[in-house]
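Q: Start with the shorter request: fold the first protein.
A: Done. Sequence, then structure:
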Amino acid sequence: MYRQADEPHDSSEHVELPQGSRKFAPVPLGIFSGLIGLATEFFGLFLLAWGMAPTSIGCGVGRAASMTGAQLVIALGIFGAFAAVGIGIMREAHESQLRRRSYVLTFAAVYVLGSIPLIATAALFGSCFDF
């Protein structure tokens, strides 16, 4: 008196799973991308400060401005690269436009808020803390 659902499963059968695209949650992906982008920007700041170490250029406002400008270029490059990769991942997964936009807004919020102290630090490194 077994029902068909109660019968033991034959393990020799191969069950084919449906071929669908993987779904990505835009908010966790945006937060993770933002944190990885900030780590990359911090490494860029390290390389920039090391490359422009106090030499005959000297310290002061001019050097602080050039360090800040260079750090802004680094930050914008990293932002563009990570945003393009994230949108590409979301597009490949056939996510909706709303979910892609949610990713970009989440990533931008995390990245921009984290970049503000790094850009201020670039100015401090450039001035050799003479402000």
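Q: Next, the second protein, separately.
A: Sequence, then structure:
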Amino acid sequence: MKAQLFDAALFAKGITKREYSTFANIPYDTVAGWKKRGIAPDHALIILKNMPLNLNKKHIARLKRAPNQYRENAETKNYKILQAAFWGKNVTVETILAQVEEKNPQYLKPIFKNVFYKDIISLLGIETIIALKPVYAKIMEKKDAEFWEFLAKRYKDKQ
């Protein structure tokens, strides 16, 4: 089994690796080493399943704050990527997004030229990618425009 699955199970149950190693009578270095190897033994989840739930106030607070914390980090990262596309220009993220919605070529060209396509999709969203389909031929080379038009068509067909 993948070590990431084991780590997620530990996190969901509110148990640290040290607590797990103490309960299972496995050296802590061995448990920590599973992450480095990328593989945890199959019996690790069975032991974890039989472990008593030990949620104290610290664990409950950590579980409550985790989803928002990761979402905020992702949004900050995406905005930093967007700002990097306009490096050296004094432009705010809000201005960039507003100009993208207005299909302004001066703002679209740097994004499509300097940002990786998966980041563009996460930044702008699928609806915007589909809405920009008529503009692609005007702002980029034919090969790139065909790629984005195909991508927009593919997502539109899925909807």
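Q: Describe the second briefly.
A: The radius of gyration is 23 Å. The chain is about 75% helix and 0% strand.
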